[in-house]
Amino acid sequence: MGMILDIKKFAIHDGPGIRTTVFFKGCPLDCWWCHNPESRGGEAELVYRGGRCIRCGQCVEACGAGAITMTDEGPAVDEDRCRLGLACAAVCPAEARQIIGREMTVGEVMEEIIKDVVFFDESGGGVTISGGEPLMQPDYLAELLRDCRTAGIHTTLDTTGHAPPDVLESIAGDVDLFLYDLKLMDDEKHRQYCGASNAAILENLHRLSRDGRAVVVRYPLVPGITDEEANLRAIGAFIASLPAPHPIDILPYQRLGLDKWDMVKRPCRLRDLAPPAEEKIAAAVGILQESGLHVTMRGETR
């Protein structure tokens, strides 16, 4: 069994062609700009979107633990009594209460993937495994990748690279393409804005390059954090020094998923941050190109 956040059909930005993207739940990093904060925890979570609530009271009646009571502000949950049952979410007509994450067997995930094979064949697409961080569930990931390869389905792994080297090496042979995050070269800043050292990330990227793996580096352009010239030049120099050439895909920060932080009751530290201006994006492209890199933005050459 694996903990799956979601399965999205007809994805076009997660690798070549039309793809089915399988999102794993659980991530070891704590990036300030994360668009999927609900993917952080490795267990299923009961979340509440207050703006959707119609005050019908069905969740109060359905809760077998008696953890929900109706107040003037709407239904309130006693966290100590809540057993994370499914009943309240199942009866909510407005989907104000939802269970985020579900356990699925590899076979169940493959059933969903196989439905889209005709689109893979016509577009040169396949399966992308994303997260969260898929490498946090290595055995499950390995079995899913093997089953995809047996079925002749192209595999892409979208990863932070934050994992023990032996974990990454154990699955690398069944991955056709890595989409590999590279955010900050300064280790102290990486710890500050991502919650962990970048040492394993840099080491693993070097290993993948040394072993001849197909890798596209993905770089989030976050104003005031990752867009400093020193960071850009350090990233460019590092990628240029790798044993094999690899393109870099710039992902400009977008104000997406801000409401999710409230939904999962986690503080959003960049709530008022605006996306980068076009001139900042152009400057980043220019700096990276000075290192001799092939630069794209969301897959399109700049």
Describe the structure.
The protein is an alpha/beta fold and 302 residues long. The chain folds into 2 domains: 2-42 and 102-301, TIM Barrel, CATH 3.20.20; 45-100, Alpha-Beta Plaits (2-Layer Sandwich). It is 33% helix and 23% strand. The chain has helices at 58-62, 87-91, 106-114, 117-123, 138-150, 165-172, 187-194, 199-210, 229-241, 258-263, 278-290; strands at residues 2-11, 19-24, 45-48, 68-71, 74-77, 97-100, 102-104, 126-130, 154-159, 177-181, 215-221, 248-252, 295-297, 300-301. The chain has a 10-stranded mixed β-sheet. A two-stranded antiparallel sheet has the order 3-6. It has a two-stranded antiparallel sheet with strand order 4-5. The longest helix has 13 residues, at 138-150. The protein is globular, with a radius of gyration of 21 Å. The N and C termini lie far apart (42 Å).
List key phrases describing it.
Alpha-Beta Plaits, TIM Barrel, two-stranded antiparallel ribbon, 302 residues, globular, 10-stranded mixed β-sheet, 11 helices, alpha/beta
List the helices and strands and how they pair.
Blueprint: E1 2-11, E2 19-24, E3 45-48, H1 58-62, E4 68-71, E5 74-77, H2 87-91, E6 97-100, E7 102-104, H3 106-114, H4 117-123, E8 126-130, H5 138-150, E9 154-159, H6 165-172, E10 177-181, H7 187-194, H8 199-210, E11 215-221, H9 229-241, E12 248-252, H10 258-263, H11 278-290, E13 295-297, E14 300-301
Parallel strand pairs: 2-8, 8-9, 9-10, 10-11, 11-12, 12-13
Antiparallel strand pairs: 1-2, 1-7, 3-6, 4-5, 13-14
Helix pairs in contact: 3-5, 5-6, 6-8, 9-11
